[in-house]
């Protein structure tokens, strides 16, 4: 991944309330449970948190090979559902013994990944997006209201070329665009408004924060108030391309930068670490325009074709967002940093689709850490 280097200047304070909210207690399963009992007892699905389900999937995914057809988290049952292609009984037993639920499907994960590459070469039309939907074992292709006529025909033809049951296409009522206008509001010297994502510490010990890359593409200097004195400066930014994220550092080395998300009304949630998203996972978004909203992760490794360019590797959700929420924090109830608001369609009245930059990827790229 390459970065567009931005000259150093100045950055901004994340104002988080002093009062924390109580995070939901999560009982993690005991990976070393006794192996006594019947085979049915040993292969019964385990109750998992979304984070522990993601860990389990990392272990399983490497072992299943071409039989693997994707996976998702069933939040209502607290179970990991693993899609399996074919009738290899050994693979099914392996999945069940790991504590997951085995589910027979048509398409392998490698088939779906190959199909996304075909879409990238044949259907990169502004106003479209696609992501693997493991719950339906398909690629979900979404076209916004601007995709009509020949452009719609191009996308529809590309979807049909993938074969029966590989992908489906749906129409969005809104328009895909970066939500430039989070956590706390931040303002550029050009008047643009975005949201602060998560405070971080850089490799050289500086305090800073992550926000959306399309925000810093509009301006290098940022302040806490519209028209205010700049207090932070963008250092690295990616947009469009392999992500939508930026690192901004505070000018004042004594700036207090708590590892927390401001939830409004004097409340804050401590953020302990960054974590990868899981399809089906419950998540919350904080933005300076619409405040606190929740929903579910619906897709991973999403590609979005904004008018400004194509962005890959995003998280897709059904959490609402509006202009000004760009860069804001996506997180879990128990304080894991998941994503940064990139863009989407719709609003917080009618709903819509929204896309987020994974925090883990952004941290690795800029060499920073949470806390």
From TrEMBL:
GO cellular component, one term: extracellular region
Superkingdom classification of source: Bacteria
Keyword Protease recorded: yes
Disulfide-bonded cysteines: 194-215, 320-348
Pfam families assigned: Pro_Al_protease, Trypsin
UniProtKB keywords: Disulfide bond, Hydrolase, Protease, Serine protease, Signal, Zymogen
Active site, renumbered: 214, 244, 326
Residue ranges constituting the Peptidase S1A alpha-lytic prodomain domain according to the UniProt record: 107-162
Domain Peptidase S1: 206-364
Residues spanning the signal sequence: 1-24
Matches recorded under InterPro entries: Pept_S1_alpha_lytic, Pept_S1A_streptogrisin, Peptidase_S1_PA, Peptidase_S1_PA_chymotrypsin, Streptogrisin_prodomain, TAT_signal, Trypsin_dom
GO biological process, one term: proteolysis
One GO MF term: serine-type endopeptidase activity
Stored PANTHER family: PROTEASE DO-LIKE 5, CHLOROPLASTIC (PTHR43019:SF23), SERINE ENDOPROTEASE DEGS (PTHR43019)
Family: Belongs to the peptidase S1 family.
Protein name stated in the entry: Serine protease
Organism, as annotated: Streptomyces spongiicola
């Amino acid at each position: 991944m390459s970065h567009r280097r931005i000259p150093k200047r100045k950055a901004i304070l994340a104002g988080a309330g002093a009062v924390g909210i109580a995070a939901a207690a999560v009982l993690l399963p005991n990976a070393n449970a006794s192996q006594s009992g019947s085979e049915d007892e040993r292969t019964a699905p385990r109750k998992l948190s979304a984070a522990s389900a993601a860990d389990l999937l990392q272990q399983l995914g490497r072992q299943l090979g071409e039989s693997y057809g994707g996976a998702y988290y069933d939040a209502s049952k607290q179970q990991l559902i693993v899609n399996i292609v074919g009738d290899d009984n050994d693979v099914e037993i392996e999945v069940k013994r790991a504590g997951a639920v085995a589910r027979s499907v048509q398409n392998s994960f490698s088939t779906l990944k190959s199909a996304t590459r075909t879409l990238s070469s044949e259907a990169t039309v502004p106003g479209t997006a696609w992501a693997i939907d493991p719950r339906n074992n398909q690629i979900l292709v979404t076209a916004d209201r601007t995709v009509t006529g020949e452009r719609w025909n191009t996308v529809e033809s590309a979807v049909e070329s993938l074969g029966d049951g590989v992908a489906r296409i749906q129409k969005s009522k809104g328009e895909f665009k970066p939500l430039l206008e989070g956590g706390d509001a931040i303002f550029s010297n050009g008047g643009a408004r975005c949201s602060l994502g998560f405070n971080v510490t850089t490799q050289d010990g500086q305090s800073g924060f992550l926000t959306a890359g399309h925000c810093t593409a509009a301006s290098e200097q940022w302040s806490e108030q519209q028209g205010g004195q700049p207090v932070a400066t963008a250092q690295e930014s990616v947009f469009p391309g392999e992500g939508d994220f930026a690192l901004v550092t505070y000018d004042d080395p004594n700036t207090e930068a708590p590892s927390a998300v401001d939830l409004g009304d004097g409340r804050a949630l401590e953020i302990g670490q960054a974590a990868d998203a899981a399809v089906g996972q419950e998540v919350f978004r904080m933005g300076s325009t619409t405040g606190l909203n929740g929903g579910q992760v619906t897709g991973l490794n999403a590609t979005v074709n904004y008018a400004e360019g194509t962005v890959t590797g995003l998280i897709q959700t059904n959490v609402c967002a509006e202009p000004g929420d760009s860069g804001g924090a996506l997180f879990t109830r128990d304080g894991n940093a998941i994503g940064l608001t990139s863009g989407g369609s719709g609003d917080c009245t009618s709903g819509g689709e929204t896309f987020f930059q994974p925090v883990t990827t952004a941290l690795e790229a800029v060499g920073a850490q949470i806390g």
